Amino acid sequence: MQLFLDGSEIDKIIEYNNIGILDGITTNPSIILKSGKNVFEVIAEITKIVKGSVSVEVSATDREEMYLQGKKLSAIAENVTVKLPITWEGLAACKRLSDEGTSVNMTLCFSSSQALLAAKAKASFVSPFIGRLDDSNQDGANLISEIKKIYINYGFNTKILAASIRTINHVKECASIGADVATIPVNVFDKLIKHPLTDSGLKQFTNDWNKTGQSIL
Ligand code: E4P
């Protein structure tokens, strides 16, 4: 499963990218607002750091303007993915941009029928929002399973990009179901590595090693 960062925190993007485990970035209008930066500037900055897909969302709601905004955003860098909402207008813009070779991420997906349509419109990614479904007492992970089954049934190439991730358990569920990508906010990303038994085990091994008086380098 590919790991994307859902955010625009440059220090964290550099940190994870330098470790070599960051496969891409997703943003949305709320993330851009939080960054306090101009969308073109922040996306240009991120695409210079990260080689993988960097999603940036259009603001338009009609197909022609979505298409034009998509063209403008995708001109920022080769690895930009244009994010469009799953509406009929969004699907039309998706098909047109995808046919022209632009990578498109269909966002705000809350049902498998929407995901089927995103695949039919040749989206590169579909983003089911699992946390927001869980927030409304529905089963976000189950939606990932449904979409996975449909895409396997028909051999669709659209990647399932699990979004709106709130917990480590969400990441685990997505990986065990077989989502192609999980896009993870910094507060969850940082926790993926943590386990108290790792900390105590490392402390013990370090102490014992020091007692041996040996050196490896
Ligand atoms: C997806 O790409 C979105 O940016 C994101 O995952 C939305 O998550 P939220 O429900 O935490 O806002």
Overall description:
With 217 residues, this protein is an alpha/beta fold. It has a single domain (2-212), classed as Alpha-Beta Barrel (TIM Barrel). It is 52% helix and 17% strand. The chain is built from eleven helices and eight strands. The chain has helices at residues 10-19, 29-35, 39-49, 63-74, 88-99, 112-120, 130-135, 140-154, 168-177, 186-189, 196-212, and strands spanning 2-6, 24-26, 54-57, 80-85, 104-109, 125-128, 159-162, 181-184. An eight-stranded parallel β-barrel has the order 1-2-3-4-5-6-7-8, surrounded by six helices. Strand 3 (54-57), helix 4 and strand 4 form a beta-alpha-beta unit. The site of erythose-4-phosphate has 11 residues, from helix 7.
Spatial ordering of strands, largest sheet: 1-2-3-4-5-6-7-8
DSSP summary, beta strand count? 8
Give the assembly state of these chains.
Answer: single chain
**Name of the level-1 CATH class:** Alpha Beta
Order of helices and strands: EHEHHEHEHEHEHHEHEHH
Helix content: 40-55%
Brief overview:
With 217 residues, this protein is α/β, with parallel strands linked by helices. Helices cover 52% and strands 17% of the residues.
Keywords:
binds erythose-4-phosphate; 8-stranded parallel barrel; 217 residues; single chain; globular; 11 helices; alpha/beta; TIM Barrel
SSE map:
Layout: E1 2-6, H1 10-19, E2 24-26, H2 29-35, H3 39-49, E3 54-57, H4 63-74, E4 80-85, H5 88-99, E5 104-109, H6 112-120, E6 125-128, H7 130-135, H8 140-154, E7 159-162, H9 168-177, E8 181-184, H10 186-189, H11 196-212
Helix pairs in contact: 4-5, 6-8, 8-9
Erythose-4-phosphate is lined by residues 6, 26, 28, 107, 127, 129, 131-132, 163-164, 183.
